[in-house]
Design goal:
5 strands; 4 helices; 5-stranded parallel sheet; globular; single chain; alpha/beta; about 120 residues
Length: about 120
């Protein structure tokens, strides 16, 4: 079993089921004791902002704010640098605990021994 799970979510409200799956897997993994790094890219970038996860709705899915809070509590949440810049999101805008980092950090994380990477 991998020691760390890196999940890159590219979907937001534009593909709600894919988005929800990524957050659900991340939250279940942290609840199972797995080290998780969740990367917000593309349209999921908006969920790094306060209140934006609460706007997300998908019938029969766990509430996105709860899933995000679970990951933030014990895992790492990263907002893609380029995605943030394209959307005018700065370090002072994001939820407490969210870092902004780029591709170099992502590649470094996924290439480490014992890491499993998933992209949604």
């Amino acid at each position: 079993m991998s020691k760390k799970l890196v999940i890159k979510v590219t979907a937001g409200a534009d593909a709600p089921e894919r988005c929800s799956q990524a957050f659900t897997v991340a939250a279940v993994a942290v609840a199972s004791g797995v080290e998780v790094s969740l990367w917000l890219t593309g349209e999921s970038s908006w969920f790094a902002l306060p209140g934006r996860a609460a706007e997300f709705e998908l019938p029969h899915a766990a509430p996105l704010p709860e899933l995000l809070e679970a990951v933030l509590a014990v895992g790492q949440v990263t907002l893609c640098t380029q995605c943030a810049t394209r959307r005018g999101i700065g370090a002072d805008d994001v939820l407490k605990g969210v870092r902004i980092a780029g591709a170099q950090v992502f590649v470094s994380e996924i290439m480490a021994d014992g890491v499993q990477a998933l992209v949604y």
